[in-house]
Amino acid sequence: MARKYLKEKGESDYDYRQDILFFKTAERDYARSIELNNLVLDVDKEGFIVGIQIFEASGFLDLSKDALLSVKHWHFEATVNEGKIEIRLVFNVVVRNKTIEKNPIIMQSISEPLPDSKLVCEA
Fold first, then answer.
1. Residue among 85, 76, 75 nearest 111 (CA)
2. Domain total in the chain
């Protein structure tokens, strides 16, 4: 079966108090969530990963909570292939008047059945 592909506009938010960084598609609603370590992945009814929440984001990304308030120019790609997910985040933050690019890659096997797919989401 061919991999499903979707490209969407997105939005992001950072909860300073709870230290949760959130990226999601603007137009697609999630139907369920998958919890992985300090991440929660939101999945829509078609099986696309349409959002990612990063808990304890400042420690996970090695950035201050203040820097996470200034997330700019971001995108994420979520690929599911044969029971493995790969999340690629790329975003910029401002630290001491200097723009820094972060690009973590998260790879994880999952036990939940998801169709092979790729979502590209950007703001």
1. 85
2. 1
Output the pTM of the full model.
0.90
Spatial separation of the C-alpha atoms in residues 103 and 121, rounded to whole Å: 14
As a whole number of angstroms, the distance between CA 28 and CA 8 comes to 9
The Cα–Cα gap between 5 and 72 comes to 25
Which 8-state DSSP code applies to residue 17?
T
- How big is the CA angle at 120 (ends 118 and 121), to the nearest 5 degrees? 140
In which domain, by residue range, is 9 found?
Answer: 4-122
Q: Which residue has the tokens 């984001």?
A: 57
CA 22 vs. chain centroid, Å, equals 7
Hey, what long-range contacts does 62-67 have (CB within 8 A, 24 or more apart)? 63/93, 63/95, 63/100, 63/102, 64/95, 65/16, 65/19, 67/93, 67/94, 67/95, 67/100
**Burial class (CB within 10 angstroms; exposed 0-12, middle 13-18, buried 19+) of 50:** buried
State pLDDT tens for residues 47-92: 999 999 999 999 999 999 999 998 988 999 999 999 899 999 999 9
